[in-house]
Amino acid sequence: MLAKRIIPCLDVRDGRVVKGVNFVNIRDAGDPVDNAVYYDEQGADELVFLDITASHEKRNIILHVVEKTADDVFMPLTVGGGVRTLDDIRDLLNAGCDKVSINTAAVKDPYFISRAAEKFGSQCIVLAIDAKRVTGSLIDATGEDWLVAEALKCVCLQLEKDAAFLGAPSARESGLWALSTHGGRKMKHIDAVKWARKAEELGAGEILLTSMDKDGTKDGYDLELTRAVSEAVSVPVIASGGVGTLDHLYEGIVQGKADAVLAASIFHYREHTVKEAKEFLRAKGIPVRL
Predict the structure, then answer these.
(1) Is 285 helix (H, G, I), strand (E, B) or coil?
(2) For the chain: N or C, fewer Cβ within 10 A?
(3) What is the pLDDT of residues 172-220, one digit of tens each?
(4) Active-site residue numbers?
(5) Cβ(219)–Cβ(192) below 8 Å
(6) What's 141's DSSP letter?
(7) Are 267 and 39 in contact (CB under 8 A)?
(8) What average pLDDT score do residues 139-146 get?
């Protein structure tokens, strides 16, 4: 078994690290560069840096913050948020990041993934999937024209009109997940597992998978979602959303079959350190880099 990665995540808004619950109820968690340096010293395998309002506000990611972060840390850095063009990817790579995460732009134009992979290499293109459970059954796209998937419809067409419906208890019974874009502000009627598979075909080198239902709850990963995506693709899958204990990291790897586990709150608020997480996993037989 290859070594599993422990990845802290910096959600950044207005130049500050923030953390919310289910993508709302945001609170401050410090300076991004200070946090990055701390995680580098702790031995984090990688760092994910997401500008969570860039796509919604239709602006570019804060390059100067990325540059400063890249200057001060030595671990691999993945950056996302507001990436809309190949030039955006080039600028981020030139600013010092190692991989670029794309979400909204890829959902709007799936072939953006293939163009990015062809120009920069699959190894630096990460597809971010923000998934939320829905009721009903998705209608499959036909043929090879994945753009048709934008027109996929659920029996729950009120998804975008009725926010309360999204949290209905029955949504946990279906085993289906729809996509979210624009930092959790919009829903798309596209099957998240099928989308992950198609993204791999188009050239994505890694999947950053976040459960909107679990994000910030500290209840643990959506293991069913994580396992479904991990089994559907051959590229690495990073589990994200819901870590509250070190056991949750173990469950994401063993039950969710993730290649890497991402966490925010438990590290940001110093409930646990990255070193503690790695020692815990190693004691349970999970190979990690210490």
Answers:
(1) coil
(2) N
(3) 344 589 897 766 567 777 899 999 999 999 999 999 999 999 988 999 9
(4) 11, 130
(5) no
(6) P
(7) yes
(8) 36
Q: How many helices (H) and strands (E) does the chain have?
A: 11, 12
The pTM of this model reads 0.82
The H or E element that residue 99 is part of is strand 99-102
How far is residue 107's CA from residue 166's CA, in Å, rounded to a whole number? 20
- Provide DSSP, 13-56: ETTEEEEEETTEEEEEEE-HHHHHHHHHHHT-S-EEEEETTTTT
pLDDT the model gives residue 135: 64
pLDDT of residue 57: 55
Give the residue-averaged pLDDT of 259-270: 92
> CA-to-CA distance for 42 and 36, rounded, in angstroms?
10
The Cα–Cα gap between 46 and 49 comes to 10
Distances (CA, A) of 246 to 14, 26, 75: 30, 23, 22
Q: How far is CA 95 from the centre of its chain?
A: 21
Confidence at residue 141, expressed as pLDDT on a 0 to 100 scale: 36
DSSP summary character for residue 108? H
What is the residue type of 184?
A: G
Position 9, amino acid: C
Which comes out higher in pLDDT, residue 54 or 161? 54
User: CA of 281: how far to CAs of 237, 248, 262, 269, 290, in Å?
Assistant: 18, 10, 14, 20, 11
pLDDT of residue 183: 61
Residues 6+ positions from 288 with CB-CB distance below 8 Å: 3, 4, 5, 6, 278, 281, 282
CA distances from 172 to 62, 197, 277 (A): 36, 22, 29
